[in-house]
Amino acid sequence: AFGSCNMLASIDVAADNPKYSSADGVLFNKDKTQLIQYPIGNPRTSYTVPDSVTSIGDCAFRDCESLTDIKVPDSVRSIGEEAFYGTGYYNEDSNWENEVLYIGNHLIEVDYSIAGEYTIKDGIKTVADGAFAFCNDLSGIIFPNSLTDIGNNAFFNCKSLTSVTVPEGVRSIGDEAFAGCNFLASVTIPASVTSIGDDAFLRCADNLTIFGFAGSYAETYANENNINFSA
User: Fold this and answer.
1) Tens of pLDDT, residues 101-124
2) What is the number of helices (H) and of strands (E) in the chain?
3) ∠ CA 110-185-174 to the nearest 5 degrees?
């Protein structure tokens, strides 16, 4: 709705608006659990996402070139696609670690050319929506035990993945998180997972098997989606 509004410096919402709110010129939902849009033209160089926020919307900070310092609290469980694309923080090469961009304890994006087995560093809580999408040469992923949430489309079309083990402590796997991983035949899901999104394993290998505990949400999901399950 506010894409490419390069001169927009502030978004202010009436106090009695039933759906939206604002703080410091930033647009939120009513209870400030979702950050929807940061104004592109705001000249601030630093911004700290409030602790009340649990999700950041698609393109929320996109093209905010002035923002070179962004702090995202651990309360955030989901980060939309291209949420930080084109920000001053994103554009600074020194913020990328081995072709991966982190903000605090959140993995934001990787360069799609990444190959082989990648180990996400310790302490990371969330993998943002679409973070590893189209990384066709990514053959393996090692998750840290700190991980709590895997975003929508996080590993979309990672065609070289054959096996994935989700660590204990992860609560949610997003929509189409592993969709298009054509050779993915084995996924181990812990009992801590209580939410798996729509089409999370769409177009994976025909012999895909979900491994998990009997009676777990993983078993329920597998049965409801006609996926092989092994306890």
Assistant:
1) 999 999 999 999 999 999 999 999
2) 2, 20
3) 50
3-state class of 88 per DSSP?
A: helix
Alpha carbons 124 and 112: distance in angstroms, whole number = 20
Residue 90 dihedral angles phi and psi, to the nearest 5°: -65, -40
**What contacts 215, CB < 8 A, 6 or more positions away?**
none
Burial 53-79 (b: 16+ CB within 10 A, else e): bbbbbebbbbbbeebbebebbeebbbb
Check residue 95 and report its DSSP letter.
G
User: What token pair was written down for 65?
Assistant: 């070139």
Whether residue 172 contacts residue 195, with contact meaning beta carbons closer than 8 Å, is answered with yes
Distances (CA, A) of 156 to 161, 165, 229: 10, 16, 22
Would the CA dihedral through 153, 134, 192, 205 be positive or negative? Answer: positive
pTM beyond 0.90, yes or no: yes
Mean pLDDT, the chain, rounded, equals: 97
> How many Å apart are CA 53 and CA 50, to the nearest integer?
6
